[in-house]
Design goal:
The chain has helices at 10-13, 127-132, 248-254; strands at 15-18, 24-29, 35-39, 44-49, 77-78, 100-101, 117-123, 137-145, 151-159, 165-171, 174-175, 178-180, 186-189, 195-198, 210-214, 220-225, 230-237, 241-246, 267-280, 285-296. The chain is globular, with a radius of gyration of 19 Å. It is 5% helix and 39% strand. Strand 8 (137-145) and strand 9 form a beta hairpin. It is built from 3 helices and 20 strands. The longest helix is centred in the last third of the chain and has 7 residues, at 248-254. The protein has 311 residues and is mainly β. Strands 5, 10, 11, 13, 14, 15, 18 and 19 form an 8-stranded antiparallel beta sheet that branches. It has an 8-stranded antiparallel beta sheet with strand order 6-7-8-9-20-17-16-12. The chain has a 4-stranded antiparallel beta sheet with strand order 1-2-3-4. It binds 6-O-phosphono-beta-D-tagatofuranose (TA6). Residues 83, 90-91, 190, 211, 243, 245, 268 line the site of 6-O-phosphono-beta-D-tagatofuranose (TA6). 6-O-phosphono-beta-D-tagatofuranose binds at residues 83, 90-91, 190, 211, 243, 245, 268.
Length: 311
Amino acid sequence: MGHSAAVWDYRAANEVTTDWSGNPQVVLRSPQGASAKISLHGGQVMSWKNEQGEELLFTSSKAIFKPPKAMRGGIPICFPQFGNRGSLEQHGFARNKVWTIEENPPPLPPNDSNGKSFVDLILKPSSEDLKGWPHSFEYRLRVALGTDGRLSLISRIRNVNGKPFTFSFAYHTYIEVRIEGLETLDYFDNLFQRERCTEQGDALTFESEVDRVYLSCPNAIAVIDHGKKRTFVIRKEGLPDVVVWNPWDKKSKAMLDFGDEEYKQMLCVDGAVVENPITLKPGEEWMGRLELLVVPSSFCSDHLDLHRAYF
Ligand code: TA6
């Protein structure tokens, strides 16, 4: 399909298929052949491929493709709770609900649409949901694929004239191995009752399970995949914390929907709101924006200026 970026018709680029859960799945395509798949089950990004058709997100070979279990991989949406400290299920219910496509959502800035292939999803609580979490919200999610293949997720969560409510949040993003940009930050260590620690060192590497929430992080971090000589540049807004999780060997074996050796090929690096949950008064709206871009690893740490735009 020979479209130049200027006339790229984002709607023509989309197709709707059916995913593993029997729910509709939207396929976004860029003019150069990159793609992304988003399931209406959970509003979950299931796949993100580059122009060469390489999959950039991890999905377990043992993922359980049966609602309400979220597929183990891609980018599950954790809302209204990240973690299991509260009355709700681990990581909240949004990733286990069926979302709908919203044709004409309230507008976003032009840069979130121009030249991009995108889909707008919306989740509202059912009467059943309100029994478990009695807050009237509208959660709008835009997933967009840029002409250079970058993937953006923009969440807008509005308190629809109920009483104030508070939530924590994460884009639970399954990608690759070595991280830079967090090396001198404080973190909660989930393996030691969320004890507050300080990271030392020039990058994070792994020899055992890691389950940490890095606090008040830069809005750009790099995940370097030396094996594939590529770097994931993660940019975020409204998401002060970064969750880093690798289950390593013991926990991998203990998870039914995860291969025993798959800890060697994945890492969760989640833009998140954990330390200071968001409280919305009636009518207020929060926005959390995540952008993922893959660049050749010549942008390694001594060259990668995380504050420079790589456009
Ligand atoms: O910190 C990330 C984490 O909370 C880990 O503790 C682990 O439970 C992971 O998320 C996976 O959670 P899930 O509910 O997707 O199996």
